[in-house]
Amino acid sequence: SFEEVEDKPEDLKPRAPIVTVMGHVDHGKTSLLDYVRKENVIAGESGGITQHIGAYGVSLENGNKITFLDTPGHEAFTAMRARGAQVTDIAIVVIAADDDIMPQTKEAISHAQAAGVPMIFAINKIDRPTANPDKIKEGLAQMNLLVEDWGGKIQSHDISAKTGTGVKELLEKVLLEAEMLDLKANPDRLASGTVVEAFLDKGRGYVSTILVQSGTLSIGDYVLAGTCSGKIKAMQDERGNAVKKAGPSTPISILGLDGAPQAGDKFNVMEDEKEAKQIAAKRAQLQREQSVRTQRH
Ligand code: GDP
E strands of 11-97, at which residues? Predict the structure, then answer.
């Protein structure tokens, strides 16, 4: 069975932080994610990020990696949390320096706080003549959120997602935060993690992007994900490369499930294909009964 087995401390290895970008509409979440994806950041790995698989990993010059959930906004964050998924290690909250602290900024902050996820503020659009980062930091201070410039502990960095100014330094701060969190996972066990997105592809069948959080996923593994199951036939990374194995904090798209699980569903590799099928079927049955019940009421 896939009951959580405690890892021994000596089996835990450092893993990359998983980052979500949140903030008010139009403050630059998509632009930041696009910039980081396009620049492939900094290390200049061969092959750009060509596939939109809902998450991607980048490497910095020092070889450290960061995994980004490529779904801007806190809807995805809350949808995942509603399904019990705790995926995000660090939240980047983007705030436009030529605007105010807006309602969705406050929402993003309270979501991160409720989830106990540390925040880093990206004060964006500093290329604009009307940008006033100090005003934003003052506004944060009034909310009891003291950034480093204000003598506090919360990291922030002034950036332009358009020109790229400050983005590298922002990512270095993400790594610093990650270091303090001491993120670890055991790569030497059956993989488990969370579904990021899934869809039916005309030619390839069901394609699911999953984020491996523990263990190592391999081709041929039997996967149980929500109400779906199947044997992994192929795996592909965000650069379109075929991959045979995926360890902790790696986003990977997989082929072989018999359906499309929902974002936020947990996935587990099972020792036994039949057991995976039975559990998936039982869950599907429960879901059908549940929906009949809600329709009646
Ligand atoms: P989102 O709704 O938070 O994802 O915001 P977008 O990334 O879509 O950005 C909203 C608008 O602001 C777009 O027109 C972007 O081109 C623009 N924008 C985003 N970041 C910057 C920036 O750093 N500087 C400038 N000048 N414009 C930006």
Answer: 13-14, 18-23, 55-59, 65-69, 90-96
The answer to whether the CB of 118 is under 6 A from ligand 1 is no
pLDDT tens digits in sequence order for the chain, 297 residues long: 455 678 999 999 999 999 999 999 999 999 999 999 887 544 455 557 777 888 999 988 888 999 999 887 777 777 777 777 789 999 999 999 999 999 999 999 999 999 999 999 999 999 999 999 999 999 999 999 999 999 999 999 999 999 999 999 999 999 999 999 999 999 999 999 999 999 999 999 999 999 999 999 999 999 999 999 999 999 999 888 999 999 999 999 999 999 999 999 999 999 989 999 999 999 999 989 988 887 776
Confirm whether residue 227 is marked as ligand binding: no
How many angstroms separate the CA atoms of 57 and 122, rounded? 19
220 carries a ligand binding annotation: no
Tell me if 72 CB under 6 Å of ligand 1.
yes
Q: Is the CB of 161 under 6 A from ligand 1?
A: yes
Distance from residue 27's CA to the centre of ligand 1 (Å): 6
Q: ipTM beyond 0.90?
A: yes
- pTM over 0.90? The answer is yes
Instruction: Tell me if 126 is assigned to a ligand binding site.
Output: yes
